[in-house]
Write a structure and sequence with these properties.
The longest helix is centred in the middle third of the chain and has 22 residues. This protein folds into four domains: 139 residues, no CATH class; 246 residues, no CATH class; 212 residues, Rossmann fold (3-Layer(aba) Sandwich); 41 residues, no CATH class. It has 29 helices and 17 strands.
Length: 761
């Protein structure tokens, strides 16, 4: 290889001897020539000494471990970072890449990671260094796809707000941590909340309120389940537990906590116990309640034991847990007490297991755990093992933090700094979660569509957050929970009687529509057996009549079947878009689209009300995802009154159209209706949009997803496109047969009731 192909790190064009010697020793043939080739490219492009140094040092390790497959991508990332940020950051990246290389044994995983870094560099170079600083943590908890999902989610969440973007990616923001937890968890708490409650009730017969703990600190181990009284709080997700394992860990957690609620009948007093003694007693109590549970439900053994990963090795360095510490020893103790087949060479664990088994007849006595814990706590005190109560969490992961079995309010408890630290480790976000319990106590079932969270805020006028709605990100192909805030604003009622007069003037139209609607039957057919008359013979009825005749009794004559329909049974939700675009004038008129919308809606409302259909009327607009404005003009439970018309005419057009969120908000009331048929009728004049979204496909795909979710829940969704220029987005969102375009808003008052009539047949 000619000397002019050898690139240097200094002004004389020389590679440090130690690095060149290492390359000559490690790299041969094509590998060495490729290494030198990319060095030359970096040097000739003038990317600088740090970029060159970073590539040269790390590239040797990459080629040595994975041959040449990832090297082109690595070179591309180095150059991209240098161009978009600077060469010093490129060097920092190379050092981190070397560490990640050791973590990923498979070349494909490392390549995926490199591709991810390149994507971050190209899309948001301003956050690259922040993400690199968190990378060692991220790769231990999440794969490249999950990190990418989180990255894209935070990118959307911070659109146009640099300060917020930096905060989200630094993992110092609760919202950023929430997205991270959702990306990594795959199986999310919200997907299982209601099932967990039903499951625990079915097994134990207890009314358990299941809530969520949000991730608040990524630097520590994931938080454990915690409980108090009949409230159980479970982590939002368990990173690393996916698919069936992800489902099972939630079940394992709720079953363990329920076991405590069943068999730990009173809380332990702290007294003068040291934190390490508290931990040991808690482990024994965990084992006691689990074994009692297994006696009643043997299947729980298969649920819990797979999570116990401790080994019985006595070496100071074992592969599972590293140096022997109190925590590693406690992990082994946890398994030893519940797994009869587990063997451990540590004398302390052998003693603990023997004592526990010898007292099998006393397992129903809660005092046993404290007695054994006191003895074992004294023994372990002589071992001088490391124990940090601030960071200690029980193993395995499904077990709770033990705070629910201890009384921390005793005035006689040890007030030492050490013990206070242990208390803090047990008490997980107590104030926040207690407040949440008060709010949710009377609203136990939370649907996946929304989570109620009342909150006051001021913006133009007093408003209230009435729900948090998810939003579908088509890029990552998942819903971001609690993504949009739906706010309820006050009405500025105007009693100018405009709509009342308008309805009066059009009373003939109203009455005609009313008669047509009443004649339309929407009902669930009922099959009646053993009738005097009908459409077909009922075999069962015939047999009974023959039996009656042979017995000498008078036959009933009920030998027919017939199908009968109930009264009209429809619930309809009318959702009206009042975004700024509805303030446009109708072509060749001095009237706005908005005026036509409320006029036609008022006529339709009057006709539906007169016909007796259950219906709800709402309007919406949006000002970014944190301010989706939703006005419920009339609820299902209410009869139409002049006051509702006053509310409708008080509306003012403004802002944007976050259609998917509005569909979810209107849909969550509709799905709860007991009616046989459910219809969501949307009136809108334009394509979904909002000022915080640049990607036109994003809100369109979200609306499409929201429609499909409602359809899955038995709701028919139909859209009336008012003066829409294109039907492409309507067909994509609603399907080819579930929309109609009204070319002129002037025609809407006449056509809308007829559209409703057609849909209601």
């Amino acid at each position: 290889m000619p000397n002019n192909n050898v690139v240097s790190f200094d002004k004389f064009g020389r590679i440090p001897n130690n690095l060149r010697d290492k390359a000559d020793k490690v790299l041969k043939g094509e590998n060495l020539s490729t290494w030198l080739e990319y060095q030359k490219k970096i040097k000739d492009a003038g990317y600088g000494e740090f970029a060159l140094k970073g590539f040269s040092e790390t590239a040797i390790e990459i080629i040595n471990k994975h041959e040449l497959a990832p090297i082109k991508i690595f070179y591309s990332v180095i150059t991209s970072i240098t161009i978009k940020r600077n060469q010093k950051l490129a060097y920092k990246f190379s050092i981190i890449a070397k560490e990640i290389l050791e973590f990923y044994s498979h070349d494909r995983k490392f390549q995926n990671w490199l591709i991810l870094i390149e994507k971050i560099t190209n899309m948001a170079p301003e956050v690259l260094e922040i993400i690199l600083d968190e990378m060692n943590f991220l790769v231990t908890k999440f794969n490249a796809t999950q990190i990418e999902d989180w990255f894209l989610t935070c990118l959307r969440a911070s659109a146009g707000d640099l300060e917020k973007r930096l905060r989200l990616f630094s993992l110092k923001d609760k919202e950023g941590l929430e997205w991270l937890g959702q990306s990594g968890g795959i199986n999310n708490f919200k997907d299982h909340q209601n099932k967990l409650k039903i499951y625990s009730t079915a097994i134990w017969g207890m009314d358990i309120n299941v809530r969520e703990i949000q991730i608040t600190n990524t630097k520590s181990s994931i938080k454990r389940t915690t409980f108090s009284n009949n409230f159980v709080r479970i982590p939002s997700s368990y990173p690393g537990f996916t698919g069936k394992l992800g489902e099972e860990v939630f079940r394992a957690a709720i079953m363990h906590t329920a076991a405590h609620m069943k068999f730990t009948t009173k809380k332990y007093e702290i007294g003068k116990l040291k934190p390490i003694q508290v931990a040991i007693i808690s482990i024994i109590e965990d084992a006691r309640v689990e074994l009692l549970s297994m006696r009643e439900f043997p299947g729980l053994k298969e649920l819990w034991l797979p999570y116990h990963l401790a080994t019985g090795e006595s070496k100071n360095l074992n592969k599972a847990y590293g140096p022997l510490t109190a925590r590693t020893l406690f992990s082994r103790l946890s398994r030893a007490l519940v797994d009869e087949n587990y063997k451990d060479s540590n004398g302390w664990i052998v003693k603990a297991k023997d004592m526990f088994l010898q007292n099998k007849k006393r397992w129903n006595d809660q005092n046993l755990s404290r007695e054994l814990g006191n003895v074992l706590g004294w023994d372990i005190g002589q071992m001088r093992l490391q124990f940090n109560p601030k960071v200690y969490l029980p193993d395995p992961i499904y077990r709770d933090d033990n705070s629910g079995i201890w009384n921390f309010d005793n005035d006689n408890m040890n007030e030492s700094e050490e013990f206070q630290s242990s208390i803090e480790s047990y008490q997980v976000d107590q104030k926040e979660t207690d407040d949440a319990e008060k709010n949710l106590e009377n609203n136990d079932v939370i649907t996946p569509l929304a989570k109620v969270a009342p909150k006051k805020f001021s913006q133009e006028e007093e408003a209230e957050i009435i729900s948090f709605q998810p939003e579908f990100d088509y890029v990552s192909a998942r819903e971001n929970y609690n993504w949009c805030k739906v706010r309820k604003y006050n009405f500025n009622n105007k009693n100018n009687y405009y709509l009342e007069n308008y309805i009066f003037e059009n009373s003939k139209i109203v009455n005609n529509i009313k008669r047509l609607i009443e004649s339309s039957k929407i009902s669930q057919p009922i099959r009646l057996k053993k009738q005097k008359d009908g459409d077909e013979i009922d075999i069962d009825g015939c047999i009974e009549n023959v039996i009656d005749i042979k017995r000498g009794s008078s036959p009933s004559g009920n030998i027919y079947k017939k199908v009968q329909k109930k009264e009209r049974d429809l619930a309809a939700s009318i959702l009206v878009d009042i975004s700024e675009s509805t303030n446009d004038l109708i072509k060749d008129t001095k009237k706005t689209i908005f005026s036509s919308l409320i006029e036609s809606t008022s006529i339709l409302s009057e006709a539906i009300n007169a016909a007796g259909d259950d219906f709800q009327l709402s309007t919406f607009c949006s000002n970014k995802r944190d301010d989706v404005r939703f006005w419920k003009i009339k609820d299902f439970k209410e009869k139409l009154s002049p006051n509702h018309l006053h509310k409708l005419e008080s509306m003012k057009p403004g802002y944007s159209t976050r259609l998917g969120t509005a569909i979810r908000q209107a849909g969550q009331d509709l799905v709860k209706q007991p009616n046989y048929r459910k219809l969501l009728l949307i009136l809108s004049d334009g394509e979904p949009s909002d000022i915080d979204i640049a990607d036109k496909e994003y809100l369109l795909e979200d609306a499409k997803y929201a429609v499909r979710r409602l359809a899955h829940n038995g709701v028919d969704v139909f859209c009336v496109g008012v003066e829409s220029e294109s039907n492409k987005f309507l067909s994509r969102i609603f399907g080819n047969k579930n929309y109609v375009i009204i070319k002129s808003a002037s025609d809407l008052p006449e056509k809308l009731p007829l559209i409703y009539l057609t849909l209601s047949k």
